[in-house]
């Protein structure tokens, strides 16, 4: 695997949410939490939010916005991402473990 895999994304411009069909096996409660989190983010600051797995299985929150979008809140975006990384840490860690086990085939290590 040489490229990133998008888990989900929300787009304020098209007012759409996307969940990669490869992750349909996630529990409904997790899918709903992701949808709410992403849509609320784009409602607050605008732009596009993507949750992406890198080749090692790390979950990254990527933000983009259209050039000339004066309504996009860059400072709010940075603050909101930091807030999500803190408040959703457990969710993100669980998603990383899920991805590593089911997509990268890593065995779960005993601690």
Automatic annotation (TrEMBL):
It comes from the Bacteria. Pfam families: DUF6145 (PF19642). InterPro entries: DUF6145. This is DUF6145 family protein. It comes from Ruminococcus turbiniformis.
């Amino acid at each position: 695997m040489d490229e990133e895999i998008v888990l989900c994304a929300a787009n304020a411009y098209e007012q759409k949410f996307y969940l990669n069909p490869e992750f349909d096996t996630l529990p409904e409660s997790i899918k709903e939490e992701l949808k709410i989190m992403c849509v609320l983010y784009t409602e607050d600051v605008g732009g596009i939010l993507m949750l992406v797995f890198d080749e090692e299985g790390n979950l990254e929150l990527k933000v983009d916005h259209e050039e000339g979008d004066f309504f996009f809140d860059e400072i709010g975006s940075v603050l909101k991402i930091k807030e999500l990384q803190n408040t959703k840490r457990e969710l993100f860690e669980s998603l990383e473990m899920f991805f590593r086990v089911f997509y990268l085939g890593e065995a779960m290590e005993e601690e």
